[in-house]
Design brief:
- The protein has 156 residues and is an alpha+beta fold.
- It has a domain at 1-66.
- Helices cover 56% and strands 12% of the residues.
- The chain has 1 helix and 6 strands, in the order ββββββα.
- The strands form 2 sheets. Strands 1-4-5-6 form a 4-stranded antiparallel sheet, with no helix packed on it. Strands 2-3 form a two-stranded antiparallel sheet.
- The chain is rod-shaped and about 155 Å long.
- This is GRF-type domain-containing protein.
- Keywords: Coiled coil, Membrane, Metal-binding, Transmembrane, Transmembrane helix, Zinc, Zinc-finger.
- Residues 27-68 form the GRF-type domain.
- Residues 71-126 form a coiled coil.
Length: 156
């Protein structure tokens, strides 16, 4: 990290943006690292662990400190995604229950339709029988009138 002008924030451990403590690391020269902040360049404002003796040492210990805002944003995105998944799973469960109820209703209606078809077939059979009986009755009536008229004609 030579060439960048960073300032020492403190030695040992220091607090992070959440108010907690950032654990110190032992650097290559055996000292506890300090937290520094990048002052120039594309990483400006990002904190990192570095040797407390820098720049007056050849120790090049360096470790980024995770950006808690980015971490918080990612955790929030994960929480939102988990919430969305939970909502979708709940809606899926409701849909499956609704589908099951509709399937049961469909099955019952199919049974009712089949019963109605059977009743319709029975009614057609009875109608054909009664139609046949009506024809037979009509024929019997004609024959009886015919025989009656023959008997009346013969008796005269």
């Amino acid at each position: 990290m030579t060439g960048l002008n960073q300032s020492t924030v403190g030695s040992g451990s220091s607090s992070n943006s959440r108010g907690g403590m950032v654990p110190p690391f032992l650097c290559e020269c055996g000292n506890y690292s300090v937290v520094r902040t990048v002052k120039r360049g594309p990483n400006i404002g990002i904190k990192f662990h570095g040797c407390p003796l820098w720049p007056n040492t050849k120790c090049e210990f360096f470790r980024w400190i995770p950006d808690n805002n980015k971490l918080d944003n990612l955790q929030l995105q994960i929480l939102e995604a988990n919430t969305t998944i939970a909502q979708m799973e709940y809606e899926k469960k409701l849909m499956e229950e609704k589908i099951k109820k509709l399937q049961t209703k469909k099955d019952n209606l199919e049974e009712d339709v089949q019963e109605m078809k059977n009743e319709l077939c029975q009614m057609r059979i009875e109608m054909m029988k009664s139609s046949r009986n009506e024809r037979n009755g009509t024929m019997a009536l004609y024959f009886s009138w015919f025989f009656f008229s023959l008997v009346v004609f013969w008796l005269k």
